[in-house]
Design brief:
By secondary structure, this protein is α/β, with parallel strands linked by helices. It has two domains: about 250 residues, TIM Barrel (Alpha-Beta Barrel); about 70 residues. The protein is about 40% helix and about 15% strand. The strands form four sheets. Strands 1, 4, 5, 6, 9 and 12 form a six-stranded parallel beta sheet that branches. The protein has a two-stranded parallel sheet with strand order 2-3. Helix 7 packs antiparallel against helix 8 and helix 7 crosses helix 9. The mean pLDDT is about 95. Bound molecules: zinc ion. The site of zinc ion has 5 residues, from strand 5.
Length: about 325
């Protein structure tokens, strides 16, 4: 976790929003899904509970100018005139963005952008990270030898360490091999009852994405498959991950100008990745590094803050996001 992240989860919650308001600069923030209740935080770790999400949305509405993403050029050109500007976004494309989040944001008249991983909208196949966590936490106890995995995986009583390690290991593999490993995991026991139980992580269909678009939601791309676009990926994979989702969104929904990188942090995006995104014809792209939009020298590596499931002090955090700018600038120059 970055130093800003540690700070945000600790000291940040004791600072009143008004005290740091003058420090604010334009920023982008994002969430994943919104669920009425969490059944198992080990596998449903991407979703806000409804009441927490409403509290966050109210604070954003009260304390900031939440703008549609079409205003990004104005903000990037004159950030000092848009100090309270916030762009609100959601990643992946979970069905609960239509059934829960859209109503809340609609009622508050907050514009937002949804970034979809198009392979998962095309097929309904769950996010590989969700499937890894489902396997590690719910497979029968025993020792498993998964393809492309350096050592066998022993699943016993305490599984969180194994789950974290498996996720990190697969994120650092070539996507094609990593997907073979995940496919193998899903064949080790009957997942169907768990997939039904954890409907929270089901993806939208294209009809549902079109329904969101009809309600004014901007639709962007979040790669084709939900894997990192890092240095472990081939050039062909990166080009596909950048270009294909734009083609799919444009064929199914309409213009697709914006991109967000899956995972999107240091180690998840290579130089070849942002070049592929730029060359695919997007206007700009968002990472998950903390920082503010005025600090940016590269519009294909824009900062964006991931809102934790419980963040009642969201206004304080957004006003302090500039603390992440030195790290953001260093990283952008490393990838220049
Ligand atoms: Zn994602």
């Amino acid at each position: 976790m970055s130093r800003f992240g540690q700070f945000a989860r600790g000291v940040g919650r004791h600072i009143p929003a008004g005290a740091v308001r003058p420090l604010g600069r334009p920023a982008a923030v994002f969430f994943h899904g919104v669920e009425p209740a969490t059944l198992d935080p080990n596998v449903q770790n991407n979703h806000h509970e409804t009441a927490d999400f409403i509290a966050i949305a109210r604070r954003l509405k009260r304390d900031f100018d939440v703008l549609p993403l079409a205003a990004i050029d104005d903000v990037l050109k004159a950030p000092e005139r848009h100090r309270r500007a916030v762009f609100l976004m959601s990643d992946d494309g979970y069905a609960n963005t239509l059934t829960v989040a859209a109503d809340i944001l609609n009622e508050m008249r907050l514009p937002w952008t949804l970034f979809v991983s198009t392979h998962h909208i095309d097929t309904g196949e769950r996010n590989p990270i969700f499937l890894i966590r489902l396997f590690v936490h719910h497979a029968p106890a025993g020792t498993y030898t998964a393809p492309h995995f350096p050592q066998s995986l022993t699943l016993g009583a305490d599984r969180e360490i194994a789950a974290e390690a498996a996720v990190w290991h697969l994120r650092e593999m070539d996507m094609v091999k990593a997907q073979e490993t995940v496919d193998w995991m899903t064949r080790q026991f009957d997942l169907k009852p768990l997939l039904e139980r954890f409907a929270s992580d089901a993806f939208l269909t294209w009809d549902q994405v079109r329904a969101l678009k009809a309600r004014g939601v901007e639709i962007g791309a979040h790669a084709h498959r939900h894997w990192p676009m890092n240095e472990h990926q081939s050039g062909a994979t990166l080009l596909m991950q950048a270009a294909r989702p734009k083609q799919r969104v444009e064929a199914e929904v309409g213009p697709c100008r914006f991109f967000s990188y899956p995972f999107g942090n240091k180690g998840d995006i290579s130089r070849a990745a942002w070049h592929a995104v730029r060359d695919a014809g997007y206007d700009c792209a968002f990472t998950t590094l903390s920082g503010t939009l005025d600090a940016c020298t590269n519009r294909f590596l824009l900062p964006r803050y991931g809102i934790e499931p419980r963040t009642p002090h969201i206004s304080t955090l957004v006003s302090l996001l500039r603390a992440g700018n030195p790290r953001l600038r260093r990283w952008q120059s490393e990838l220049a």
